[in-house]
Specification:
The complex is a heterodimer of chains A (503) and B (159).
Chain A: H1 2-14, H2 17-35, H3 41-47, H4 57-82, H5 91-102, H6 106-139, H7 144-161, H8 166-181, E1 183-184, E2 191-192, H9 206-223, H10 244-266, H11 273-286, H12 299-314, H13 316-322, H14 328-339, H15 348-351, H16 353-374, H17 378-384, H18 389-408, H19 411-429, H20 435-457, H21 464-467, H22 469-502
Antiparallel strand pairs in A: 1-2
Helix pairs in contact in A: 1-6, 1-16, 2-4, 2-16, 3-4, 3-9, 3-14, 4-5, 4-6, 4-12, 4-14, 4-16, 5-6, 5-12, 6-10, 6-12, 6-13, 6-16, 7-8, 7-20, 7-22, 8-20, 9-18, 9-19, 10-11, 10-12, 11-12, 14-20, 18-19
Chain B: H1 4-28, H2 43-65, H3 82-102, H4 104-118, H5 124-146, H6 154-158
Classes of the chains: A mainly alpha (503), B mainly alpha (159).
């Protein structure tokens, strides 16, 4: 159990007064942006990336992790009280949670979400502690060809499996990969796609792409439709606390949700949507009160919220042990590692124990803080929702401008930011997922590097990807992940045609 | 309705296709030293470009068959509301033009005002005041906390 001794050391890092302070700032900021519709953790962390030039790595990552988890807690508050899920992972929470709030049970809904998130976060941290050292041992066996195959698998799952359309997901990924290629090629010093622009030699900053898609694009999208009616905030009536029956119905759902969420989050596929949906349907089947589902069943909030938080913790396993981000937020954190000159991967746990275990311990501490911040103080967070939309969205664009113009003081970058914002608007209109763009642009250069390394080792022999068992297996899974849904679709269309022609 | 649900996706698909063709073409402009001839700096760009061409073509098929379901093709969704978008877009363009000559604080206050107007702010003077204070506080806050340099400007030089 080397993991737990390391975790104890991690607590000694995370519990220093300065790092505790960073954690408080992180979870508070995270809850606030989670509560506000239209803002997310990826955008916030991207705007704060310049902090990596100012503070030591452990402090920065404790701040980022606080924001990440805080946004999860805050997001569930919003989806319960105003039924506008800020993030796709909280859609399920809104299903039952908002019904509960409407029937005057908003308090217990918020409580079961917060306590469930805490329970799941705790299980998640234990899971990371146990799993991370094992994955590291496994990862040491990986050759560059295997790494490349793993990245291909991650690319396919984050873009094709999780979205509504394989084609649009892969297109978003390819756009991201292209953005990642712009600039000087690190191995040969050759400039690619710079079109003679000096400003493009260093590549396009991830902050510009992230803020462009998530802040500028989102604001344009909201502007295109806000006059169609305002969301109503359901006031919290009655007791905040759960009664004995609520507890009895929640605790199993929390545990089940966490046990579904963590493994799925820890897989190189990642994503919080699938575990929340799985948990919801599982609770619906197992519940003694299936008739309440759709009208405000507490299990339908407890399970998915736990699954969401546990999978958020699980995402740290591939990020810290393999350097593999499976969400937009994790991808931004990977670029924060790069900014410190740290390469996440199997060596990270042994070369940066303070950073890694301090970060994991801070997840635990952050969970406790979030419970305190969110349950008694929920009334305060609801006040944030009352900021008038004009002032809020105008403010977001001012911060977006600072975040990019402040780094480079370049009008070219600002134009790029707004241009990518326009692209983000059309991506929303035509239902392209945006996370694959971020993951593609950050992970793409790593994938290219591993590919070339593999080719150097095999002396240009492409068969290395099918002759090495690990690489071949991973690529086969990636291939099937695209092929199987396509075959199902073709079969469905075929059957549909046969039915219509025989009728 | 029928026209609308196909024209938009077709244009988007063509944009993806054009990007792909552009990437493939631009890749041919990268000169490769013969030492890297096999897996050089153009290998990945060519794959990405080809992928975009293929994906763009397939998207074009879904656009023409009318199977592209999204907000823009949903007949229940109204068309985008152009007036607020024009205010927001105008704010962005003005900021782009004025940030270098006027400086961040004034230029972004103006953008704030226009975006707030776009989102239906009634009291313009209040929006202007909030925007100015926010830009001022953010200018100093970010400069102190993150070490960002926002450059000079009309207000910046007075302080």
């Amino acid at each position: 159990m080397e993991g737990f001794t390391s975790l104890l050391h991690g607590f000694s890092v995370a519990l220093t007064p300065m790092n505790l302070l960073w954690s408080v700032v992180g979870v508070t900021l995270g809850t606030a942006i989670g509560v506000l519709p239209g803002l997310g953790p990826a955008l916030t962390i991207a705007l704060l990336l310049p902090i990596t030039f100012q503070v030591e790595p452990a402090a920065a990552f404790i701040l980022f992790a606080g924001i990440y988890f805080g946004a999860m807690f805050g997001g569930s508050t919003t989806s319960i009280l105003i039924n506008t899920p800020g993030e796709s992972a909280t859609i399920v929470t809104a299903l039952e949670g908002h019904k509960m709030a409407r029937s005057g049970r908003g308090g217990p809904a918020l409580a079961t979400a917060a306590i469930g998130s805490f329970v799941a976060g705790t299980i998640g941290v234990v899971g990371i502690t146990v799993l991370a050292p094992i994955i590291v041992k496994l990862a040491l066996l990986f050759s560059p060809a295997d790494y490349f195959a793993l990245m291909v698998l991650a690319f396919v799952t984050v873009s094709a499996v999780l979205g509504t359309s394989i084609l649009r997901g892969l297109s978003a990924l390819a756009i991201g990969l292209f953005i990642g290629l712009i600039g000087v090629d690190l191995q040969t010093g050759q400039a690619r796609f710079t079109f003679g622009q000096m400003a493009l030699l260093d590549g396009i900053d991830v902050v510009i792409v992230c803020v462009g898609l998530f802040a500028v694009g989102e604001t344009l999208h909201l502007a295109s439709r806000y006059r169609r009616g305002q969301d109503e905030i359901v006031p919290i009536k009655g007791s905040l606390w759960m009664n004995a029956r609520d507890w009895a119905r929640s605790w199993k759902a929390w545990l089940r949700g966490a046990l579904i969420g963590f493994p799925i989050g820890a897989m190189p596929a990642g994503g919080a949507e699938i575990p929340t949906f799985l948990s919801y349907f599982m609770e619906k089947r197992l519940s003694k009160h299936p008739e309440e589902f759709g009208k405000g069943a507490i299990e339908g909030v407890a399970g998915p919220e736990a699954a969401n938080n546990a999978s958020a913790a699980g995402v740290f396993v591939p990020l810290l042990t393999l350097g593999l981000p499976t969400s937009a937020t994790a991808a931004i954190m990977l670029s924060a590692f790069q900014s410190y000159g740290i390469n996440p991967g199997p060596q990270l746990l042994s070369t940066q124990p303070d950073l890694v275990w301090g970060l994991i311990a801070s997840l635990y501490i952050g969970n406790i803080m979030l419970l305190v911040l969110n349950l008694p103080l929920v009334g305060l967070w609801v006040q944030i929702l009352k900021i008038p939309a004009p002032y809020l969205y105008a403010g977001i664009l001012v911060f977006a401008t600072i975040g990019t113009y402040g780094i480079s003081r370049s009008v070219f970058d600002l134009a790029l930011l707004y241009g990518i914002g326009v692209m983000g608007f059309f991506m929303r209109r035509y239902d392209f997922p945006t996370s694959p763009v971020i993951i593609g642009m950050i992970l793409g250069p790593f994938a290219e590097q591993q590919f070339r390394r593999a080719m150097t080792i095999s002396q240009g022999d492409m068969t290395v990807f099918v002759t090495r068992p690990i690489a071949a297996t991973l690529l086969a899974i990636a291939f099937l992940a695209i092929l199987v849904p396509v075959l199902f679709e073709v079969a469905r269309l075929y059957r549909y045609r046969n039915n219509t022609s025989s009728a | 309705m029928e026209r609308r649900s196909r024209l938009g996706p077709t244009i988007v698909a063509l944009a993806v296709l054009a990007t792909g063709i552009g990437v493939v073409w631009a890749t041919t402009l990268v000169t490769v030293s013969p030492a890297y001839a096999r897996i050089g700096p153009t290998f990945f760009p060519r794959i990405v470009g080809t992928a975009l061409v293929v994906l763009g073509t397939l998207l074009l098929v879904t656009a023409r068959t009318g199977t592209w379901r999204c907000e823009a093709t949903d007949p229940d969704e109204p068309r985008p509301d152009l007036i607020p978008m024009a205010w927001v877009g105008g704010g962005l363009v003005l900021n782009l033009l004025l940030i270098a000559p006027l400086g961040f604080i004034l230029s972004s206050s103006l953008m704030y005002l226009m975006v707030a107007k776009g989102f239906g702010a009634r009291r313009i003077w209040l929006a202007a005041l909030i925007g100015f204070v926010l830009a001022l506080v953010a200018y100093y806050g970010f400069a102190q906390l993150l070490g960002l340099r926002m450059g000079g400007g009309l207000i910046e030089d007075l302080l």
